Amino acid sequence: MFYEVYPRSFMDSNGDGIGDLKGIASKMDYLKWLGVDAIWITPCFPSPQVDFGYDVSNYVDIDPMYGTLGDFDRMEDQGKKDSVNIVLDLVVNHTSDQHRWFLDSEKSKTNAYRDWYIWRDGKGPNQPPNNWTSLFGGSAWQWSDQTSQYYYHFFYPQQPDLNWRNPKVKDAMFDVTRFWYKRGVVGFRLDAVDTLFEDPNLTNNPVLPGKDAYGQPNQERKYNTNLPEVMQVLAGLRTVANQYNAVLIGETWTNTVEELKRYYGAHHEGIQMPMDLAFTKIPPPLSADAFRRHIAGVVGSGEWPVWVMSNHDIVRAYTRFGDGKNNDSIARVLAAMYLTLPGTPILYYGEEIGMQNNDPTRKEDVKDPIGRLGWPQEKGRDGERTPMQWDDTPNAGFTTGIPWLPIPTSYQTHNVATEEKEPGSILNFYRNLIALRKSNKALLDGDWVALNPDDPNVLSYLRRYKDQAVIVVLNMSPNDHNVSLDLSKQGFKNARLKTLLTMWGGGQSLPTLQLSPYAVYIGEVVKK
Ligand code: GLC
Ligand code: CA
């Protein structure tokens, strides 16, 4: 089980209102208690913080705001003691405009680093080379006075894209991974991999109807995303990873299962864990049909799925799916689902205590630049990045200073210390679920079979491993429902249920389960 840590917001050890590595180290015992095997830490390298670390100015050091390399080693040692491994975030597509590679590149047309980035002439005075727009607003081309050319940036202008067609870029980045593997990290989460290559002819993208949040015509990013060359880079990174027995997780936004499958590689030479981020696009409200269909597709690919509900770029699932009345129950239903599927779940910090989004209400409070640029249509990502809620003291026990983002008042009830003490809390539910998942062969390695596939309200499935089976029954509706289950086709003709974990659904027996609103029932199927 993986867990995403946003270092600015996890735990502050020195009172400056910003989380740090010592803070993370001090919470390793908590992560162990929860059952976390590895944490993915979003970028903690030196950075001007235009994109809060996703603009890296040095890949082989730690930003002073987060600590030192020594603090990193101590954090890692603490993690080893608590069986929590470290995965770092590799920003492969671009660097900061303050990285020394770019500072050199920008100086002249002939310097050794010029071809490390993508420099082009404009089409004419004040005319960028083509119509490509940045995902973060405006043209994807930034004029530079020093050489009177444009450079390309898929994200902010302060994040110039590296030129992955230059073998020197590849070598340098592969070396970066070696540096950290040697230091003990067990893998990388690869940032924004689909943007690594662009059409060398700079063909204009097709324009689509409507405008984006920044007022620009929409376009199909046909010529600057998802080029086939991406797979070669991923396979190269994998070859290096294999030498260190490391894992590669991908930030892989896909539209179809075929696209997702491609990232594993036809012969598994790609990345081991491309995230199924399409899972986060399933629209609320909860729908048994929508989840069943999606899961069946991903599981049907035959690959090892990677399930994600929330992260630092999207509204927290608690807020997305909450109906304002049953939010905690709905959070448990979601947890019971994505932690009982085949594959690996990645939890976003705070998900396990029912943290909600705390979006800014005034433009002047926004920290994330896209929120200022796209306000009010795009409010930015501050809301899902607020400090971890450790207890009910001021600032939720995150800092003794002023937290860099405001903490929602729900921290008074939704925090680690309070929830640890309540047997029925979201936190204890997560913890019990994770423990169950780790100790149950069917949940770990079993196949997945949908039951009652036409039921629009209740999502039911079996996880089968040899002659063992676990049944998961999730009432995704605010009403009572009875479900009749016939397991004879699945090889369990005469069977009874032994409850493993439940919420509002105790004491069930076959063939008919009686479920109250948002009930969760997980049981072992025992042959009579
Ligand atoms: C990824 C990150 C996001 C960042 C972007 C640019 O999508 O998750 O936070 O802004 O890449 O690096
Ligand atoms: Ca700090």
Provide tags for this entry.
binds calcium ion, eight-stranded parallel beta sheet, binds alpha-D-glucopyranose, 19% strand, 528 residues, 25% helix, five-stranded antiparallel beta sheet, globular, alpha/beta
Quick description:
The chain is α/β, with parallel strands linked by helices and 528 residues long. The chain has helices at 21-26, 28-34, 69-81, 100-107, 167-182, 230-243, 257-264, 288-300, 317-321, 327-338, 369-374, 416-421, 426-439, 441-445; strands at residues 2-5, 38-41, 85-91, 119-120, 141-144, 149-152, 187-191, 207-211, 217-219, 247-250, 273-274, 306-308, 344-348, 447-451, 458-465, 468-475, 481-484, 495-503, 512-515, 520-527. Helix content is 25%, strand content 19%.
Structure explained in plain terms:
α5 runs parallel beside α6 and α10 runs parallel beside α13. α7 links the parallel β10 and β11. The chain has 528 residues and is an alpha/beta fold. It is built from 14 helices and 20 strands. The strands form five sheets. The protein has an eight-stranded parallel beta sheet. The chain binds alpha-D-glucopyranose and calcium ion (CA). The site of alpha-D-glucopyranose (GLC) has 9 residues, from loops.
